């Protein structure tokens, strides 16, 4: 019946919408989010999975959540194989000797200790390499020169990053002894962008590195002159042993249905080159500060809110997978979830992945965000990388989409540092997250579950 | 008498002003300037004084000037003591261990091979260090945190750079064992800016390096927490032997008074970190392309024009000093001179240092530049760093002042690469230089000589 459907349709009490608006305005007047990122980047800095920085970050996360007065703070183990960056150098040997700036891609194997010298063979992009004749790169170093395009939504990343992930095995399949890609980034700084790559089974593992944009330009300019270009690359990276890090979790425990909870989170690990301010210190600051504002209310929300600082997102969403596995028997307790992992630009849109009957409620939530410049988008949210494993188990998710126009200027480079964060934009993010978290914890009804993933 | 004065007042023939305007428009339609910088940065790249890149640059310069058809091409020796950059690393040891990005300052001594660890003592600027009590930095590493201000005319450089030049000896005088300065630059990229420093006689030589801006921020943030901050720095730099490089000179030989000549020039050397596109490949491209346009005229100008590619500007104006010394007996042959050494931004003003009677002629010259957005400034031109020694011998000079708003974002860093040059702005520079060089070679009368330097 119509009345039964109405009963099931999720909604928010007027009083809760009012509190959400107040929390939003408090967020806009608080610098706690920035203080948290400043603390993480200053007191911990780089925190690549499996390094001492990783351990320091876990310790920092637990201490910070306790210091902020979360009702419960705990960790859950996350185990993975580590990778260690070693020396990384490259230079043009001939015809125009000069140094090149590179960085090894995550999980690259090493070159021989005294380097690998070979002629360069250039490809426009990964497809050109895939479509090239067998053996074309025999004994050579493949250079893929494709450029990532700048976009607010980061949509240039997907097409470009395939060269990073798959380039090495595709190159090896054509006989190459090494691969250099133009960095997956939108800047023209002389810094190379790291990030994960993977070797296909049964294909020779060859060393893989990214050139900074100016160095990729340089190689192109040399190659255009028509003489063979010989490059020497030296990579000292190696796989390490098993390591157990931890997801760090802080809970605002609900007053009515404490077992039901909303997840807001970010990943605590970073790459090693920068201090991980944008990726993903910003997300840690935003979500932790949002929950802290809710802790400041006179009473706890009806449901719980969990801030999850995921371990080792960078090298394979390992923390996200571990959380989904550890909580697989209680997936229904997760009301909904959103991860902040796209830097510190302002949020401009909120997308959902909820049951159709819940969309009117999402739009009500979006209205509270409207003064922040945020409008409702669509019902095809992804929710964030560490939520992929939980999404696979059917949870509803939200994407609070940030302006990522500049994100890939700094992404996975030494330039990912605190000065790149605009405190005002960060506050706007926190304001949106506190609305999302508080209203989701207070809502009448639910966002649904059992969504299929594409 | 009035008529005698009028006779002596320099002037330009109408026909010459017309040719100058034509040359200007040709320059705006030529990409030769950019092609020259592209060639230098691609085929030579970094060319720090005394390195193989220096030798390659001299070879390149001679070949390029010959290829372009200069009437005479020759080199003149320039001898100096070299400096070699070695390993350069730093890290915070306590209380928050993490790496720091540094670069050694030119002519810094090394630390012990396994590094130098000491507590940091922070000063606001060089004056604060100078005014501090005796012995205040005993056994410590001094950190000077002053920031350079951005300005179109680069006026923030002078006040800030004193910390780089004099910081080490001032710190050593207070007992310090090392010094770190915030990079002299206007960017917030995680790249340190190198550049010369000097040790005072009779004071202990301590290792000196610059921190990137984000790393200087990081140190400040750590220090603000109040606990002692210990840094380890490792510098492997050392002084090398004597080396003889060369000024490379190309001449457009005058048709009437070939022994009289106008100098346009730039420095051929660069620091080692970038490819020296802005500093000073741009100047090489601008001045060489300007002279080449004059070579393309149906007849040679009355006087000669010399393009001088100065050796080793960076480590003490050595090429400029050598030229002044070698030509000291024929200073009067130098009609006037201008060096391009401030990047590739558009020229917005022309200043002169000429006899007062010549100022109306300079204003006529400036009128030809007006369509380029250039106006006459004043009669207090400096002329450029490599012209300082010639200025000391009384020559007239011109400063074609470039927009340097962004210059110190890249100055002396790995980021000084070709992509930072806007080809259109470069052409505007060439257009101004060709007007200056041609009209000066054609003028009736002279700009005067015997100017005293402040
Ligand atoms: Zn991330
Ligand atoms: Zn990342
Ligand atoms: Zn210079
Ligand atoms: Zn310089």
Automatic annotation (TrEMBL), chains A, B:
Swiss-Prot/TrEMBL keywords: Carboxypeptidase, Endoplasmic reticulum, Glycoprotein, Golgi apparatus, Hydrolase, Lysosome, Metal-binding, Metalloprotease, Protease, Secreted, Signal, Zinc, Zymogen
Ranges where the Peptidase M28 domain occurs: 247-431
Location within or outside the cell: Endoplasmic reticulum; Golgi apparatus; Lysosome; Secreted
Pfam families per UniProt: Peptidase_M28
Superkingdom of origin: Bacteria
Major location category of this protein: endoplasmic reticulum
Subunit structure: Homodimer. The monomeric form is inactive while the homodimer is active.
Protein name in the entry: Carboxypeptidase Q
Organism: Kangiella taiwanensis
């Amino acid at each position: 019946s119509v009345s039964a459907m109405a009963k099931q349709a999720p909604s928010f009490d007027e009083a809760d919408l009012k509190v959400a608006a107040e929390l939003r305005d408090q967020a806009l007047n608080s610098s706690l989010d920035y203080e948290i990122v400043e603390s993480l980047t200053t007191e911990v800095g780089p925190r690549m999975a499996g390094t001492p920085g990783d351990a320091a970050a876990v310790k920092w996360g637990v201490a910070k959540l306790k210091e902020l007065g979360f009702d419960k703070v705990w960790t859950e183990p996350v185990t993975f194989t580590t990778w260690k960056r070693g020396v990384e150098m490259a230079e043009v040997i001939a015809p125009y000797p000069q140094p090149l700036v590179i960085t090894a891609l995550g999980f690259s194997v090493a070159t021989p200790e005294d380097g690998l010298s070979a002629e360069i063979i250039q490809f426009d992009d990964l497809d050109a390499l895939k479509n090239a004749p067998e053996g074309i790169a025999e004994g050579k170093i493949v250079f893929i020169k494709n450029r990532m395009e700048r976009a607010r939504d980061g949509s240039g990343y997907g097409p470009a990053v395939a060269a990073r992930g798959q380039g090495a095995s595709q190159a090896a399949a054509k006989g190459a002894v090494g691969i250099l890609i133009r960095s997956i980034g939108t800047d023209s700084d002389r810094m190379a962008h790291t990030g994960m790559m993977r070797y296909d089974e049964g294909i020779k593992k060859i060393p893989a590195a990214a050139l900074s944009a100016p160095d990729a330009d340089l190689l192109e300019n040399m190659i255009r002159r028509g003489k063979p270009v010989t490059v020497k690359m030296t990579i000292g990276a190696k796989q390490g042993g098993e390591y157990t890090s931890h997801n760090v979790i802080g809970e605002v425990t609900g007053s009515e249905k404490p077992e039901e909870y909303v997840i807001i989170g970010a990943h605590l690990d970073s790459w090693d080159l920068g201090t991980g301010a944008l990726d993903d210190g910003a997300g840690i600051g935003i979500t932790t500060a949002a929950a802290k504002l809710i802790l400041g209310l006179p009473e706890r929300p009806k449901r719980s809110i969990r801030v999850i600082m995921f371990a080792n997102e960078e090298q394979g969403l390992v923390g996200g997978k571990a959380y989904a596995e550890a909580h697989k028997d209680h997936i229904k307790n997760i009301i909904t979830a959103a991860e902040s992992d796209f830097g510190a630009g302002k949020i401009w849109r909120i997308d959902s992945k909820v049951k159709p009957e819940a969309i009117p409620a999402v739009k009500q939530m979006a209205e509270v965000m409207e003064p922040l410049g945020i409008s409702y988008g669509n019902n095809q949210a992804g929710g964030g990388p560490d939520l992929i494993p939980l999404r696979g188990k059917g949870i509803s998710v939200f994407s609070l989409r940030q302006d990522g126009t500049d994100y890939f200027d700094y992404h996975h480079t030494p330039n990912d540092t605190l000065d790149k964060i605009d405190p005002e934009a960060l506050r706007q993010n926190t304001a949106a997250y506190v609305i999302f978290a508080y209203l989701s914890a207070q809502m009448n009804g639910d966002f649904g579950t059992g969504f299929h993933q594409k």
